[in-house]
TrEMBL record:
It comes from Ramlibacter aquaticus. Residues 81-117 are annotated as: Disordered. Residues 106-117 have a biased composition (Low complexity). This is MerR family transcriptional regulator.
Amino acid sequence: MLSSKDILERTGISRATLNNYISYGLVPRPQVLPPEPGDAGAPRLGYFPDDTVERVETIQRLKREGWSLGRILDHFGAAAPEMEGEADPRGADEEPEPSIFPPMAAPGAAQPAAAPAPRMAPVSAAAAQIAHEGVSVHAVPQTLPVAVLSVALADADDLWTCLLVQEYFELANEFCASVQALARLNGGRVQRTSPHRLVCHFLPQAGRSQFMDALRTAQALQGAIQAMSQRWQIRKGWTREIGLRCGAAEGEAWVGHGGGPGEDLQVVGDVGNQALLLSRAARGGAALVTRDLVARLAATDRAQAVYGVPDSPAADAPLRLMVFTRLREFAPHVSPPRRLGDLPVAELVSLGLQRTGPAGSAGAPNQGTSA
């Protein structure tokens, strides 16, 4: 049996995504049982069957291949006998949820002459403003090269236990305000997914690099959160550091309008799951980036980027600079899914730091071997 935490760590999906899969019947509802000996802190926990990870990975693969929600529901309704007889989670009188993915024929089937475009609401004023600033936004979704930065408050559970509720939300709101301000300053669009976690999307804009914008935001956040930490140290009289965890990734994603007045853009693709997993794997206060994102930088921008990997698993281990390592070797504790275990990653050290000094120290490239 697997806990929800096991599933989230092994697949890289968010808790909201898991809850959606449960509500649709794609994943069985958890069986509520007393916690295992190592799961202290809750009187009862929900556990899922051992094959749930494989089920989630299959759903994610089908989504990447362009399957609509209705088709995925039908697929598992036919393939999973235990779901037969259950009511359609979409409701008998409701139409299937509009998919932002293009319809895709089954293997071996004839391709349809013309697939209807997804029904999308008119672009809102917010989306129109983005279009005015140079981002290509359309009512009908399209694929765009995007950078995604997932940002979370480090040790949020510990902060929750040692602060008053009002103080915790004050701190979380201050943290999120800093993320929102800096991401927007660098052309990003921000979505708050929990009290202490945000996702920043950077889309193509005229005269900008969405990949460099994501790294600039991560770099600026490190300084901003250090200043916030110092203010809370004075206020609470403690010595603990408040940190953040960042994960930045790039890739092709489906981008469209959210579908209602005042709603923001929708950005759907595996790149968001990668960024989320990297933020969970990052050491406290660090930003973890993919090799592909660094490679997408313009040559002049790439020359400014300093990055590296720890010499050992120790929290304070020094970095070997200008090299990458596989995610499973960088952060074995997060148990990355098989398809992401070989993802080359590194910690972002700085942008524009002069690389001089003893080999292997911060400020000098180490002649290591990249992944």
